[in-house]
Design goal:
6 helices; 234 residues; 3-stranded antiparallel beta sheet; globular; 9-stranded mixed beta sheet; alpha/beta
């Protein structure tokens, strides 16, 4: 089965619908599936729920879909660098479900493994625990978190072979692999596609069984923060 598509729009053809739930990879501004997010913007799909570590910034990542008001709800662990996100949330235009970072990653991983729920200590005694089932194990209290099952996963990898085996680079490996596994369909954008069999099996981070569609493209390299220190005496 051919998994390679000519463009992000082609790779998403027939998958998008209003009100759908999308799990998106990315960590800060690293490993964001920017080509697929732009294709979703161009498609005009609306009332979307996104699960992602963050909401990007105003003009990059999920931020471009916030600008066009295509996102109804965000499930995230960090949203602090997006002014439009803040404006929509404070005005009641956008729903927000905060998840601790490790909990969010585990919810995605659990969904990919077919696990409907798990107990964690993270968030006990805070607003995160409100309305959730509590249970004691060995004298300590835990809360029930549910596995995440998305309609679609969109992720970015460094390399893929023609069957969808993936290699991620550095921090891009944090959320992309669990996000990739928890969707009914997984679409991946990559910097390079190599022939099947050319990747060292020991270097593969996600097997192609999870990947349904692949698109190759050029990606913007963004730096999240820059620190400038003047030289002493200058």
């Amino acid at each position: 089965m051919n998994k390679i598509y000519g463009s992000a729009a082609e790779a998403l053809d027939g998958l998008l619908f209003d009100g759908m739930f999308i799990a998106s990879g990315g960590f800060g501004l690293c490993g964001i599936p920017e080509l697929l997010l732009d294709a979703i913007k161009q498609a005009g799909t609306k009332d979307l729920t996104f699960a992602s570590n963050n909401a990007g910034v105003d003009d990059f990542g999920i931020g471009i879909l916030l600008q066009t008001k295509q996102v109804k709800k965000m499930i995230s662990s960090y949203v602090g660098e997006n002014k439009e996100f803040m404006r929509q949330y404070l005005s009641g235009e956008l729903e927000l479900e905060f998840n601790p970072q490790g909990t969010l990653a585990e919810r995605m991983r659990a969904g990919g493994a077919g696990i409907p729920g798990f107990y964690t200590k993270t968030g006990v005694g805070t607003q995160v625990a409100e309305g959730k089932e509590h249970k004691d194990f060995n004298g300590e209290t835990f809360i029930l978190e549910t596995g995440m099952f998305a309609d679609l996963s969109i992720v970015k990898a460094w390399k893929a072979d023609e069957t969808g085996n993936l290699i991620f680079r550095k921090a891009a490996r944090n959320f992309n692999p669990p996000a990739a596994t928890c969707g009914k369909v997984c679409v991946v954008e990559v910097e390079e596609i190599v022939p099947t069999g050319s990747l060292d099996p020991d270097h593969i981070h996600l097997p192609g069984v999870y990947v349904h569609r692949i698109v190759q493209g050029a990606h913007e390299k963004r730096i999240e923060q820059r620190t400038v220190r003047s030289r002493e005496g200058a």
